[in-house]
Amino acid sequence: MKEINAKLVLITGGSSGIGLALAQQLFAQGASVVILARDQQRLDAAVAKIEQQRLDPAQKLGALSADVTDEPALRQALAQLTNDYGLPDLIINCAGVARPGYAETLEPHIFHWTMDINYFGTVNVCQILLPDLIARGSGHIVNFSSLAGVIGVFGYTAYSGSKFAVRGYSEALRSEMKPKGILVSVVYPPDTDTPQLAWEDQFKPFETRVIAGSDHPLPADKVAADVIKAIRRNKINIIPGGEAKLLFFAATRLGGGIFPIMDMLVRGAMKKKAAHENQKKVTDE
Fold first, then answer.
1. Among 22, 52, 103, 234, whose CB has the most other CB atoms within 10 angstroms?
2. Any catalytic annotation for residue 145?
3. pLDDT score, position 1
4. For the whole prediction, is pTM greater than 0.70?
C-alpha cells in the first residue's frame, strides 16, 4: 500500500491513543477514515479532531460505536461500514487494554478481559471481513501486538499472553492470506504515551516500574508516523522507535539467551524494592 490517498481505512480503538493519532495522520494524507470504539462521546470528540486534518472535500470520515468482543454487534457494525462506506483497503486493529500486576494477585477475570479485547477483538474483526477481502483479492490488515508479545514482561502476564496470541494468529494468517493478495502486518510498539498507559501505571508492580524506568514512552504521534511509513513499504514486522528495534532484535535473535538478561534486570529491581521497603520501615518508625 504505497499510496494512502483515497484509500478507505478502518481503525479499531480509533477514539484515543495510537488509534486516534493514526486516524489523524492518515486523514491528513488523503485517506478516508472510519474509527470504531465503544464510547460514542469519545468517538464524537475524535471525529472532530480528525476533521481538522481534512485534505480533500471528497474524503469520507465516520465513526462506529461497537464492542470488538461482542461478535454479533460487531458484525452488524461492520455490515454498516461496508454498506455506508465500502470495504476497507486498510484495516488497523488497534483496540487494546493492559492491566499489570503480580500474577498471583490478578483475578481470573482480568486474564479473560484482556484476552477478549486484545486477542479475540482482533480476531473478530479479521474473521468477519476476511470473506469479502478474499473475494476482492486485496487488502492490508495491520494487527497491534506489543514488545510484550515478543518477550514476557514482569508484571504483564495477562497482557503478554494476549499479545503473544495476536502475534501467533497474525503470522499464521499472513501465510494463508498472502497467496490471496492480502497482506498482514504486525506492530510491536514499545511503551507509548497514551491514556491507556497512564491508567495502567497505577497497577504496576514496583519491579515493573524499575525495569521500565530507563525507558521513555514514545509520543503516540511518533508511533503512528512510524507505522504509516512501514505500511507504505508493505513491512510485515513494524517496530516503531530505535530502542524498540534493538529489543525486538535481541528477543528474536538471542533465543533463550534473552532470559539471563531479563533475570538480571528483575534481580536488580527486587533489590531496589527491598531497599525501598527497608527505608520506608525506618521512616515509619
1. 22
2. yes
3. 62
4. yes
